[in-house]
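User: For this week's homework, look closely at the record that follows, marking any run of repeated tokens, and judge whether sequence predicts the tokens.
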Amino acid sequence: MKIKKQKEVVNMKKPELSYPVFCFKYLHSISYVNCKDAGFFIDFLQRLQKLGQLGWNEINKSPRHSFGYEKIPVSAIKTNFRTTIMTEDVTELTVFRANGNNLPFLGLRLNDVFQVIFIETTFNDIYQH
């Protein structure tokens, strides 16, 4: 079902049909400035594509080291990263795996949009594993 709302079309769909949209507006530069492996980002893009195809319903059923996720406390993050998207009531971040070797990417889910804040290209750069 589609409805018009202020000159834009909004698709009213069932929650089980929702798919992630990945946003990089708040991506912290520590995520990429020291990365020397371009192949890592190719793998990461492939992972994002697969997550997008699965949808939130399947992601929620998947194990954390596969296509699922886990939560970590904000206090575990090594760097100061508060951005305008982070309010004081946010106490944890959602962690997905960025590629097959379990390097993580972290952020916040706001409805179907996942705001990527960190991508860890080297283990322990963002938080201690």
Q: What stands out?
A: The longest helix spans residues 38-61. Confidence is low (pLDDT under 50) at residues 1-9. Residues 15-119 form one domain. The two ends are 45 Å apart (CA to CA).
